[in-house]
């Protein structure tokens, strides 16, 4: 099978798996229901004056009144209530069309909120805002202002969720009434809490400056309300062989030694403990050995030459030779793959140029012959330009010939 065909097949299968995976990720039924209701209400709006020109003849008024609460309109609205590709929505619609019908025909008498009536009270897929879970339990902090208004109650308004407060970034605690780690209380009254960031070295502080710390983050040591960076690299060997330790603010990193080193104290070829194979020491540095620069030729094959590389060398074939089964052989003289214009000489290029201009001038001449003033002007201009080009070209050649003593 063609490799590219194979690739695209594999890609298609992968895409299908991915899409079905996304489809399988279960949609919250409450969300599906609310979405369905939104689309349904939009459909009602859209059909409000549809099919009617806005004229108000008695006949039209009467027809409009009939249509308004009709089965016809209900079916039109239902038709647009779900996106065709939205499987969950279509399933829910199919299973609950009778409820929509009930609501539709009683609507004028009881214009209750369809979302609450259908999703919450009838299908029991949703909960009132500020409550969550199968039994619609109250969110932490009460239903009016769950999570103190500083976070989201997980699952609020649905029959799912965990009922736990997901606090906004600067807040913490089960009710989001505290400041998160790394934040301090900038302002607070009974109803509001404003948390601002500590200096990056502290986890608890009284203000934003570096000398207002009460507790330090990991990797820092408290001294006089300041957090001082701990040098983790100082005493213990923390990194693997052939790595060096780099102290950073609040932490440290292990980085690989330069490839010229075996063991090192820092970055670069001047911090090696020992030089790697293929390198020699020159003062503080480990430098690459030029293996090709030696009395004894390193490459012993016929038509081979030595090329130095970092830490080593390779043997390659001389120009015009390529490796076939271990030895260098002359490249076959092959001109079958030459491009279309590779063989063209300068003179031929000139001929091609003239042919090109000739075609354009012919075209312009034809148009000029039809008596069009504009094209006549362009034609004359083109001839003049052509002549100029021709003479300059010629004069160049004459001059060139003259200089060469011809
Ligand atoms: C609710 O919590 C679960 C589990 O922690 C999480 O996967 C989900 O994204 C949360 N939902 C919302 C709306 O934050
Ligand atoms: C608490 O502070 C907020 C903003 O800082 C303010 O809008 C609100 O009126 C204050 N409430 C009380 C009871 O002082």
Automatic annotation (TrEMBL):
Reaction it catalyzes: Catalyzes the rearrangement of -S-S- bonds in proteins
Keyword Transit peptide: no
Signal peptide: 1-25
Keywords: Calcium, Disulfide bond, EGF-like domain, Isomerase, Membrane, Redox-active center, Repeat, Signal, Transmembrane, Transmembrane helix
Compartments where located: Membrane
Keyword Ion transport: no
SMART domains: EGF, EGF_CA, FU
This enzyme's EC code(s): 5.3.4.1
Recorded family membership: Belongs to the CRELD family.
Protein name, as recorded: protein disulfide-isomerase
Lineage, uppermost ranks: Eukaryota, Metazoa, Chordata, Craniata, Vertebrata
